[in-house]
Amino acid sequence: MVHPDHFDMNALLAYAVANNREDELIESGCAKIRKLHGLGQTQIGLWKLPTTSLFEDFCASLARQLPHDYVKGVAVDLTRHENDESGDIGYTVTLADGTEITSSYVVLALGPIGAPIIPPKICNVPKGQLISWNRMQENVQPHHADVLVVGGGLTAVQSAQYCLRQGKKVYLCSRRPLVERHFDIDTCWFDRRSANMHISDFYHKPESQRLADLREVRGGGSVPPMYMEDVRKWQAKGMLTLVHGAEPEFLRSTEDGKVWTSMGQETSAFDCIILACGIKPDCTANSFVKKIQEKYPVKQIGGFPNVSVDLEWSKNLLVVGALASLNVGPDSGNIMGARRAASIVANTLECKSWLRDEKGRGALSNPFTELFWDEEDSSSDSDSD
User: Fold this and answer.
1) What are phi and psi of 50, to 5 degrees?
2) How far apart are CA 333 and CA 328, in angstroms?
3) Which comes out higher in pLDDT, residue 353 or 376?
4) What letter does residue 283 receive in the DSSP assignment?
5) Residue 148 confidence (pLDDT) above 70
6) How big is the CA angle at 244 (ends 144 and 271), to the nearest 5 degrees?
7) Which pairs with CB-CB distance under 8 Å and at least 24 residues apart come from 87-92?
8) What is the rounded CA–CA span in Å between residue 324 and residue 367?
9) Cα four-point dihedral sign 294, 311, 341, 352
10) Cα angle at 153 between 147 and 159, to 5 degrees?
């Protein structure tokens, strides 16, 4: 039961109990994994999964306890400025409406960034009928009775579920059979008995090997058992058809708005195609990050910025989440990795704060500097004599 409260691993469970919402904690099946039985979390229910509403309410309650100002807007530019006297560096973030926010430190927590992966044989599907999964709620129309979902991970299954609950018939097409497992990475990455060893081994590898490990460990997506059970139920009802081992190919569109597509030996007509194939990592696909890269360039490896061990892109500019994948590990885009990255950033900021006193001087500088006389003071005293 992973959540943002870094100081109390039981906080989400306690919140559910205190608010009589224990029925919103769903068995994940993780307690059945034998190698996890030695962990106390399995005995007290910490491997259960919260419903979306429970998790959102918990996060909102946590945010109310933390002093912060919330500003809603789209960041379009970032400018660095330096204090000539103290040498301190700060930033101004400009929003789309012209609002400027100035801060000593900026943390980029932007989630996965990249271009959607579109199988080449369906890239010519007419506009409006090829829909990205994150735009389907506004673009999938009531008259779209037959839907093709392309993808083989959890996002693809959730997209199919959304359409099925709207009463549509769905084909789910993937390159390989759906892989059923509890997590998209192995439990060794968050089992506290082995996690630190894996993270350390990952970080001490060459950058190119780290990139290869990111791709290998995640393995192209997976589907938790509880979702697979739902998939099988829809299959039994005849509303969902799984097709694997074939790449969909767009054949033609007809006047009645149908998109004819072949999948191996099978040819079918659909009202729309939903893309859920993931993204190709490319941090510059985000216009805001692209401007940052142009102004304060860092080495890019496989679409990820190669930041410092302290997760600094530039001085006082830090990153967490998927942008920190090369330094945090394959779980960087998940809550567990984001929480670990947040801990690194917090330690970095605390260290930087400790290295300054209230007058802006470095804590390692000579504190007696102001007691020294300069030559002008000496001359002035001698003249008065």
Assistant:
1) -80, 150
2) 9
3) 353
4) G
5) yes
6) 10
7) 88/356, 88/360, 89/315, 89/316, 90/316, 91/316, 91/317
8) 37
9) negative
10) 35
